[in-house]
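Input (Oligopeptide ABC transporter, periplasmic oligopeptide-binding protein):
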Amino acid sequence: MFMRKVFVFLLVSLFIVIGLSWSVYATPEDYYKATGKRIEKFNEAPMLAELVKQGKLPPVEQRLPKEPLVVVPEESVGQYGGTWRRVWKGPSDRWGIPRINQASLVFWDKNGEKFVPGVAKSWDILENGKVYVFYLREGMKWSDGHPYTSEDILFWVDDILGNDELTPAKPAWYRLLDRVEAPDPYTVKFVFKQPYALFLLQVANRGFTGSPKHFLKQFHPNYTPMEEIEKKMVEGVHNTWVDLFNDKSDFLESLDLPVLTPWKPVTDPTEQFYILERNPYFWAVDIEGNQLPYIDRIRHEYVQSSEVIMLKAISGEIDMQWRHIGLLGPGPGVLPLLLENAKSGGYRVLRWKTDNGSVSMVMLNISDPPDPVLGEVFRDVRFRQALSLAINREEINEILFNGLAEPRQASFVSGSPYYDPEWEKAYAEYDPDRANKLLDEMGLKWDSRHEYRLLPDGRPLRFTIQVTGQTHVDVWTMVKEYWKQIGVRVEIENLERSLYDSRLSAHDFDAQAWVMDRASQPLVDPLWIIPGSTEYASAWYIGWADWAGSYLEGEESLKEYLQQEDAIVPPEGIKETLEKLLDVWKEIQNTSDPEKIKELMKEVTKIHRENLWMIGTVGEDISPAIVKNNFKNVPEELVTATPFFSPWNAMPIQFYIEQK
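Output:
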């Protein structure tokens, strides 16, 4: 009963996909009960059959778990073989890899409406959401053939997350955890201190499959003497055992790391081609018993610019890609170019939908600004309201997005269970006269020529917006001209992603622009709305993230934080507002009633629309993907969202390349 209640508040009603769709069954027996069809035998890719013939691999029946996951393909049973050609921007682009290559105890279904089995074949939710029990697949193995058991999950929780040297900043869910138990090798139980209705959202988003204990324990002092670990450390590379452990556990760079994912890296990510090759022990099959994935290899070609990516796309050199085409790409303005070249390039263009609350929003550094005088101006909500009112969103939509997006404030999308129409419209109309009046009220005077406004200390009111990617450059270049009408001067600085991130971490920015994703299922990852609720932080509260995290942990943690010399605490007025927001979040985490959660989320959206910490432009946009004509089983329609790790919710393990 409780499981059904949990699902009620997860539904995203805006995006309804009809027609064919991939699906899964927990086991072959479940597939038989539902369809009356039995999977009589298991088959394998020719490249693996050859290794079996050579005695280098055991037969497929011995590599699969006793009860593998069964995947029903999107359109048809596929063909084995081929190399999936993609592009990426090198190691700094690492988070694109898990979006096509991952393992999780449970997955989202294609539409983000419910959870489906993954590594866990089933699960129970007990004691009103205080206890979660997952049942693993007997006989399942890591990519090196070693058994996968509940011990691997215990190792991850106790020895990695629980180790303060390896994980000094704990995930929010971990702070609520009482203990993890493993009653047997194929059962794992998470017990929380109090009901935690949001846990399955975390599991589907973050995997929770553990780490390969048999491999990583040789680098961990709980299992291996330090003198033995030190012998493995490389001088000039590893200063501590933590450096060594992190190197060996890096999913991108550690080629020796056993994995549960469908493909495993076989080349160094710094090479021109970063190649993933099929995992011979992957734990899923299709409806005819063919071990998945269908595709042998994924090849990522290193490119430095978005322009080169687009040239490769329209010339047909990419087999299937959404990242850097739609997501992080040039924007919907590129759609005509893609369509114009589709026939000659031998590809089709998919118009996937996003859950973006704003394609590009700006966040002012109000928490720890490099310029204190500018920071005081930023902290006045009237300034943020004025900036928002001075943006012509309708014009941005027509010029940059071909009218395919929605002019709106940075807020939850209209299909979210927590959609707030007042937040969507808050200060989102184009009214430069009203914006000027607000700035006048603040006492921000014009210069003698009436060209720009002045800061309280007499300097020109100007600041820099840091961005990464052409879409953000285009949007804020337009906004730059709008803001001249209200006397605010800005510069746009387009940074490489790793530099953008390092500036954020160092609080070294006036303002940063990013996409407000996660706007359909915000409870999965409340990065944008709740300070301190995740191990990451967004630009508007980055300086207060540690304070907020300590506040959420409790009085003792907060007291300890406040004793630090470098503690950054919100000023009076803002502090009380944030405490109220954090108190609401605490209540949400401890609530199992979906209707109560909806009421509490109304308080969250009210606080945000009144404070406007994020200033949006347009959202709910179309996000194109390209697919070669011989590349099959890719959904024509898809909701793309960070919580779903899109395009993982297209289920890449059932993609296939039609062989000639």
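The longest helix spans residues 594-611.
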